[in-house]
Amino acid sequence: MSLTSETDERATQADDVKLRLENLDKHFAVNQGILSRILRGESSQYVHAVDDVSVEIADGEAFGLAGESGCGKTTLGKTAIKLTEPTNGRIIFDGEDVTDLSGGDLKAFRREAQVIHQNPYDSINPRFTVYEWVEEPLIVHDIGTPEEREARVLETLEMAGLEPPEAYAHEYPTELSGGERQRVGIARALVLEPSFLLADEPASMLDVSIRASILEVFERLQDELGLTALYISHDLSLLKHICDRIGIMYLGELVEVGPADEIIDNPQHPYTQALVSSVPRVDPDVDRERIELVGEVPDAVDVPSGCRFHPRCPKLIPPEDVDLEQDVWRAVANLRRDLLEDDLALADDETPTPAAIRAEYGVPDELSDSHVDEVLSAALETYTQSDEATLDRLREALESPCERGSIPTYQATGVQRSQCLLHDPDGPYQVE
Ligand SMILES: Nc1ncnc2c1ncn2[C@@H]1O[C@H](COP(=O)(O)OP(=O)(O)OP(=O)(O)O)[C@@H](O)[C@H]1O
């Protein structure tokens, strides 16, 4: 297909691109069993762990991925280096399309792209000594003589900060502290001299006191070895510290990408703004409004239409003819959403009055926009009678532009891109 060959050509030309993901998807099937589908008539459903992600990571760059739990960070990282197969899309590594590699070619690629796991306690085989554990990848890849391997293992242990290396070589991992074990994990990943490192929550299981020293190891290694790294973490201040750029994921999509400082100091996407607002300030003198993220990340099987963040977004765009304060509009939208899903969040089981429902959702008794008030009142009056026509009216009359179609990625600032209609330069919406 012409699009693929054109983009391939670009990748080959762009020497400084280490990894390029093109429209990457990773979907996991649920109800995979044929029997359950036949017996219960269920069609296959999919977890949209990663959806249409495109991003480039430059050679020598440290790229961070953040987002709430379940947003797809680990799946994106693993798919990017083929620890799991993508459902769709292309992976270009060093200018070569590695998407369909298998056999010996895949094994060669594995040498280049290594991973450091989150948990230093269960990611090391306790039957191996530190030496055996770090040497094993060299044996698997049939590298060097025993003497050469010994020199390489000791050198790598030292690089990972286990000094003197001879003292650690014959220890068992169970005899080591968490920080030391994480350094053993780092040494095992580095022994093959990879050019790309995936570090998934590399410090989250460690004490705060040890965390800083492990992060220093990463920073030093990146400088000295010129490694390209993909760091995954919930901790935005950690990512700001060690990354050049940060990508924010929400429900399988990359909703904002930009330089680490800009993402933290000047977030553009409403989701990033909410995430960042919960990070404790380094500088307490600078006032930042705390934006509360209401609710949980929705189910990745049945993803919301339009912008996936719209059911929780504090900046949800109202329909053109709706004239309400933003917080009132958000409250109306929450009530509308739950009415349409027949899932009202109410305090008790008794059939509530429209006024009680409004109060529960923080919607004023009378709205300043009489049209919205009338549509909502009608839906509330007929709520117990499941009146389809009234619900259809509620659905159509109060539909936000954020619920429609697929939302493109826009250039939000000179250096940040954001998947939010507020950043459509040709759109009618004002960025607040
Ligand atoms: N092997 C799998 N089979 C089915 N679903 C999966 C599988 N792995 C991940 N998922 C689902 O994919 C979605 C993304 O999960 P993932 O672990 O990538 O998110 P995450 O952002 O890394 O979360 P966390 O921060 O908690 O590690 C979730 O809904 C998860 O339940």
UniProtKB/TrEMBL annotation:
Domain ABC transporter: 19-276
Pfam families: ABC_tran, oligo_HPY
Keyword tags: ATP-binding, Nucleotide-binding, Transport
Alphabetical list of SMART domains matching this protein: AAA
A Gene Ontology molecular function term of the record: ATP binding
Biological process terms in GO annotation: peptide transport; transmembrane transport
SUPFAM superfamilies in UniProt: P-loop containing nucleoside triphosphate hydrolases (SSF52540)
Keyword DNA repair: no
Residues of the signal peptide: none
Listed name of the protein: Dipeptide/oligopeptide/nickel ABC transporter ATP-binding protein
Organism: Natrarchaeobaculum aegyptiacum
